[in-house]
Amino acid sequence: MKKGCFLFIAVFLARMAIAQEPGLVSENIKFTKSVIENEKNHLIVFVDMESEPKHWVHYRYDHYTDVERIIDNDGASYARPKGKEWLKSGDWGETGAPVDKDKEHELQTLSEIPFLPFQEFENHDKGQGAGVWKFVKNREEKDVKFFVFEYSREKPNPGGYYPHYTFVKYKHDTDGSLLLTKCECNLRDGDRLIPLTIDYQYMFRLPADTKIIYGNNRQ
After folding, report:
1. Domain total in the chain
2. How do residues 1-14 score in pLDDT, each as one tens digit?
3. pTM of this prediction?
Protein backbone atom coordinates (compact mmCIF):
# COMPACT_ATOMS: atom_id res chain seq x y z
CA MET A 1 0.00 0.00 0.00
CA LYS A 2 1.33 3.40 -0.96
CA LYS A 3 2.08 6.10 1.59
CA GLY A 4 -0.62 8.31 0.05
CA CYS A 5 -3.23 5.62 0.78
CA PHE A 6 -2.22 5.53 4.43
CA LEU A 7 -2.61 9.30 4.58
CA PHE A 8 -6.04 9.16 2.92
CA ILE A 9 -7.26 6.52 5.40
CA ALA A 10 -5.93 8.51 8.35
CA VAL A 11 -7.69 11.67 7.18
CA PHE A 12 -10.91 9.74 6.48
CA LEU A 13 -10.92 8.16 9.94
CA ALA A 14 -10.18 11.51 11.56
CA ARG A 15 -13.17 13.09 9.81
CA MET A 16 -15.38 10.18 10.83
CA ALA A 17 -14.27 10.56 14.44
CA ILE A 18 -15.03 14.29 14.37
CA ALA A 19 -18.47 13.70 12.85
CA GLN A 20 -19.29 11.21 15.59
CA GLU A 21 -18.25 13.57 18.39
CA PRO A 22 -21.37 14.25 20.54
CA GLY A 23 -19.96 17.59 21.63
CA LEU A 24 -20.41 18.93 18.09
CA VAL A 25 -24.16 18.22 17.86
CA SER A 26 -25.09 21.70 19.06
CA GLU A 27 -22.83 23.22 16.41
CA ASN A 28 -24.45 21.07 13.73
CA ILE A 29 -27.88 22.22 14.86
CA LYS A 30 -26.73 25.84 14.58
CA PHE A 31 -25.31 25.11 11.14
CA THR A 32 -28.63 23.61 10.04
CA LYS A 33 -30.47 26.71 11.26
CA SER A 34 -28.13 28.92 9.25
CA VAL A 35 -28.89 26.88 6.12
CA ILE A 36 -32.65 27.24 6.71
CA GLU A 37 -32.33 30.99 7.26
CA ASN A 38 -30.44 31.49 3.99
CA GLU A 39 -32.84 33.15 1.56
CA LYS A 40 -31.48 31.06 -1.33
CA ASN A 41 -32.47 27.75 0.24
CA HIS A 42 -35.75 25.84 0.38
CA LEU A 43 -36.58 23.67 3.40
CA ILE A 44 -39.00 20.76 2.88
CA VAL A 45 -40.34 18.94 5.93
CA PHE A 46 -42.53 15.85 6.26
CA VAL A 47 -44.22 15.49 9.65
CA ASP A 48 -45.87 12.36 11.09
CA MET A 49 -47.56 12.87 14.47
CA GLU A 50 -49.92 10.72 16.53
CA SER A 51 -52.23 13.55 17.60
CA GLU A 52 -54.61 11.10 19.29
CA PRO A 53 -54.21 7.40 20.11
CA LYS A 54 -54.08 5.52 16.77
CA HIS A 55 -54.82 8.73 14.85
CA TRP A 56 -51.91 10.11 12.87
CA VAL A 57 -51.50 13.51 11.30
CA HIS A 58 -49.30 13.66 8.19
CA TYR A 59 -48.41 16.87 6.40
CA ARG A 60 -45.75 18.60 4.33
CA TYR A 61 -44.28 21.94 5.31
CA ASP A 62 -42.25 24.14 2.93
CA HIS A 63 -40.19 27.08 4.09
CA TYR A 64 -38.57 29.92 2.21
CA THR A 65 -37.53 33.04 4.08
CA ASP A 66 -40.36 34.98 2.39
CA VAL A 67 -43.19 32.40 2.35
CA GLU A 68 -44.36 29.21 4.08
CA ARG A 69 -46.63 26.47 2.76
CA ILE A 70 -48.48 23.52 4.31
CA ILE A 71 -50.02 20.65 2.35
CA ASP A 72 -52.21 18.47 4.54
CA ASN A 73 -52.93 14.76 4.23
CA ASP A 74 -55.95 15.47 2.02
CA GLY A 75 -53.87 17.49 -0.43
CA ALA A 76 -55.25 20.89 0.58
CA SER A 77 -52.63 23.63 0.24
CA TYR A 78 -52.18 26.67 2.49
CA ALA A 79 -49.61 29.45 2.27
CA ARG A 80 -48.46 32.42 4.31
CA PRO A 81 -46.25 35.10 2.73
CA LYS A 82 -43.97 36.76 5.25
CA GLY A 83 -45.83 39.26 7.41
CA LYS A 84 -49.26 38.20 6.15
CA GLU A 85 -52.05 35.81 7.15
CA TRP A 86 -52.58 32.19 6.18
CA LEU A 87 -54.52 31.64 2.95
CA LYS A 88 -55.95 28.56 1.31
CA SER A 89 -53.83 28.87 -1.79
CA GLY A 90 -52.40 26.77 -4.58
CA ASP A 91 -49.88 29.38 -5.75
CA TRP A 92 -47.76 30.07 -2.66
CA GLY A 93 -50.06 32.81 -1.38
CA GLU A 94 -50.09 35.00 -4.47
CA THR A 95 -53.85 34.48 -4.48
CA GLY A 96 -56.20 32.63 -2.15
CA ALA A 97 -58.94 32.75 0.43
CA PRO A 98 -58.35 33.69 4.08
CA VAL A 99 -58.90 30.89 6.61
CA ASP A 100 -61.00 31.17 9.76
CA LYS A 101 -59.49 31.69 13.20
CA ASP A 102 -59.55 28.02 14.20
CA LYS A 103 -57.80 26.98 10.99
CA GLU A 104 -55.28 29.78 11.36
CA HIS A 105 -54.44 28.57 14.87
CA GLU A 106 -54.05 25.00 13.60
CA LEU A 107 -51.78 26.07 10.73
CA GLN A 108 -49.69 28.20 13.07
CA THR A 109 -49.15 25.17 15.33
CA LEU A 110 -48.27 22.94 12.39
CA SER A 111 -45.78 25.51 11.09
CA GLU A 112 -43.99 25.63 14.47
CA ILE A 113 -43.56 21.87 14.90
CA PRO A 114 -40.71 21.51 12.34
CA PHE A 115 -38.64 23.95 14.40
CA LEU A 116 -39.14 22.32 17.81
CA PRO A 117 -35.93 20.25 17.53
CA PHE A 118 -33.94 23.49 17.29
CA GLN A 119 -35.19 24.81 20.64
CA GLU A 120 -33.48 24.40 23.99
CA PHE A 121 -34.58 21.30 25.89
CA GLU A 122 -36.61 21.57 29.09
CA ASN A 123 -35.60 18.89 31.58
CA HIS A 124 -38.63 18.34 33.81
CA ASP A 125 -37.25 15.43 35.85
CA LYS A 126 -34.28 16.89 37.71
CA GLY A 127 -33.48 13.48 39.19
CA GLN A 128 -32.13 12.36 35.81
CA GLY A 129 -29.42 15.00 35.90
CA ALA A 130 -28.36 17.21 33.03
CA GLY A 131 -28.99 16.52 29.37
CA VAL A 132 -26.19 14.86 27.40
CA TRP A 133 -25.67 13.97 23.74
CA LYS A 134 -24.75 10.36 23.00
CA PHE A 135 -23.56 8.92 19.72
CA VAL A 136 -25.81 6.00 18.67
CA LYS A 137 -24.65 4.76 15.27
CA ASN A 138 -23.71 5.70 11.73
CA ARG A 139 -24.54 4.16 8.40
CA GLU A 140 -23.67 4.78 4.78
CA GLU A 141 -25.86 4.69 1.67
CA LYS A 142 -23.99 5.20 -1.60
CA ASP A 143 -22.32 8.62 -1.27
CA VAL A 144 -24.20 9.65 1.86
CA LYS A 145 -23.31 9.09 5.51
CA PHE A 146 -25.82 9.30 8.35
CA PHE A 147 -24.94 9.93 12.01
CA VAL A 148 -27.51 9.29 14.75
CA PHE A 149 -27.32 10.93 18.18
CA GLU A 150 -29.54 10.64 21.22
CA TYR A 151 -30.32 13.49 23.57
CA SER A 152 -30.24 11.56 26.83
CA ARG A 153 -29.63 12.35 30.50
CA GLU A 154 -26.79 11.75 32.94
CA LYS A 155 -29.01 9.23 34.77
CA PRO A 156 -31.54 8.10 32.13
CA ASN A 157 -34.60 6.12 33.16
CA PRO A 158 -34.27 2.42 32.28
CA GLY A 159 -36.34 1.79 29.18
CA GLY A 160 -37.00 5.49 28.70
CA TYR A 161 -37.29 6.95 25.20
CA TYR A 162 -35.14 9.96 24.35
CA PRO A 163 -35.04 12.07 21.18
CA HIS A 164 -32.97 10.76 18.29
CA TYR A 165 -31.40 13.21 15.85
CA THR A 166 -30.07 11.99 12.49
CA PHE A 167 -27.57 14.13 10.61
CA VAL A 168 -26.45 13.70 7.02
CA LYS A 169 -23.15 14.31 5.28
CA TYR A 170 -22.62 14.03 1.53
CA LYS A 171 -19.45 12.61 0.03
CA HIS A 172 -18.27 15.85 -1.55
CA ASP A 173 -18.87 18.05 1.50
CA THR A 174 -15.59 19.44 2.77
CA ASP A 175 -16.59 21.84 5.57
CA GLY A 176 -17.11 19.13 8.21
CA SER A 177 -20.61 20.33 9.15
CA LEU A 178 -23.62 18.02 9.29
CA LEU A 179 -27.24 18.78 8.35
CA LEU A 180 -30.16 17.60 10.42
CA THR A 181 -32.24 15.20 8.31
CA LYS A 182 -34.54 13.54 10.87
CA CYS A 183 -35.77 13.93 14.43
CA GLU A 184 -37.73 11.20 16.25
CA CYS A 185 -39.13 12.24 19.60
CA ASN A 186 -42.20 12.60 21.80
CA LEU A 187 -44.19 15.73 22.51
CA ARG A 188 -45.71 16.07 25.96
CA ASP A 189 -49.40 16.93 26.35
CA GLY A 190 -50.03 16.79 30.08
CA ASP A 191 -49.31 13.19 31.05
CA ARG A 192 -49.57 11.92 27.49
CA LEU A 193 -46.63 11.51 25.12
CA ILE A 194 -47.24 12.20 21.44
CA PRO A 195 -44.93 10.28 19.04
CA LEU A 196 -43.46 12.59 16.42
CA THR A 197 -41.19 12.05 13.41
CA ILE A 198 -39.85 14.98 11.39
CA ASP A 199 -37.99 14.42 8.10
CA TYR A 200 -35.99 17.30 6.64
CA GLN A 201 -34.91 17.89 3.05
CA TYR A 202 -33.01 20.81 1.59
CA MET A 203 -32.99 22.34 -1.86
CA PHE A 204 -30.15 24.71 -2.65
CA ARG A 205 -30.11 27.33 -5.39
CA LEU A 206 -26.99 26.47 -7.36
CA PRO A 207 -25.21 28.11 -10.33
CA ALA A 208 -26.71 27.29 -13.73
CA ASP A 209 -23.70 25.21 -14.77
CA THR A 210 -23.85 22.94 -11.70
CA LYS A 211 -24.13 19.30 -12.77
CA ILE A 212 -24.50 17.48 -9.43
CA ILE A 213 -27.41 17.96 -7.05
CA TYR A 214 -27.79 15.94 -3.84
CA GLY A 215 -31.11 14.94 -2.36
CA ASN A 216 -33.53 12.05 -1.99
CA ASN A 217 -36.59 10.97 -3.93
CA ARG A 218 -39.41 11.68 -1.51
CA GLN A 219 -41.85 14.17 -3.08
Report:
1. 1
2. 443 433 333 333 33
3. 0.81
